[in-house]
Design brief:
The chain is mostly helical. The protein has one domain (8-159). It contains six helices and no strands. The longest helix has 49 residues, at 113-161.
Length: 177
């Protein structure tokens, strides 16, 4: 499942990213799965994936990963949310959300219909992207918490099953007065 995603060793396979492969290899934050790199990748990656930028998302995601010090693998993986099978329903949903939000806030009512819906598509992409990012963030935090709890339980069980050995001290019987 992770095979098609970018890693340090396979950057040369990506059409545009390969031009920046050497630059990317020198940036360890692009490959780190620490919270400081995962959270920006989740938020920026989710928003970029739902904006009407189909076709240039990977380039923008790579630039965003560099600019916001996010994990490149996560950011690129999120770009596959919009694919040839999902692009129409996703853009229809984001346009609907954006249009309803613009009408509710009474923004852009005077704009021509095409411009109104183009703006709605971008606004909806940001709003839905932030909602998806928030859900992904909460899921990530839960999984992180659960893994820490599991690790602590495992270490506790290991200490019970394999208690530390008592240090052997020479007995006083061996000494003669």
């Amino acid at each position: 499942m992770l095979r098609p995603l970018p890693r340090r060793g396979n950057l040369h396979r990506y059409p545009v990213i390969k031009w920046f492969a050497e630059h990317a290899r020198k940036r360890p934050f692009l490959w780190s799965f620490k919270r400081a790199q995962v959270i920006p990748a989740l938020y920026w990656g989710s928003v970029i994936s739902l904006l009407p930028l189909y076709g240039v998302q990977l380039i923008i995601a790579f630039a965003a990963a560099l600019a916001f010090r996010g994990n490149l693998t996560i950011m690129v993986a999120l770009q596959f949310i919009t694919n040839p099978l999902t692009v129409v329903p996703i853009y229809a949903t984001t346009a609907w959300v954006g249009a309803n939000l613009m009408r509710f806030l009474q923004i852009g009512e005077h704009l021509p219909k095409a411009v109104f819906y183009a703006n709605a598509l971008f606004i909806g992409g940001v709003v839905v992207g932030l909602i998806v990012a928030l859900m992904a963030d909460l899921l990530w935090r839960f999984i992180d918490w659960e893994s820490r709890l599991f690790k602590a339980r495992l270490q506790h069980l290991h200490r019970i099953v394999h208690p530390p050995a008592e240090p052997v001290t020479p007995s006083d019987d061996s000494k003669t007065p």
